[in-house]
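Tutorial handout. Part one gives the primary structure; part two gives the three-dimensional structure as tokens.
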Amino acid sequence: MTSLSAVNSQNLPVLSKDMAQKQLGQTDFLRLMTTQLKQQDPLDPVDNQAMVAQMAQFSSVAGISEMNVSLKSIAEQISAQTALLADIKAASASVSQGE
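Part two.
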């Protein structure tokens, strides 16, 4: 299993750097969920609300991850446009000085 270490006096668990870089994807989540359903006790099944809550939480995390990728792309585009505008400004300044 994953080893955890305490960060401070509150004993907050922290994943090691190697484990923090590994991320579970949608297929991992579905595999875990189906395994959980296969292994559950038929006389004491998993609460429907708990299962729905797990799926909603995963859906939220997936949406946040997708939004993060989109925001990084937007930031890269803005950076490229800013550099282009700086180049245009420098070129127009040198042209106007040459007149």
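Part three, for discussion. Residues 33 and 54 are 9 Å apart (CA to CA). The radius of gyration is 25 Å.
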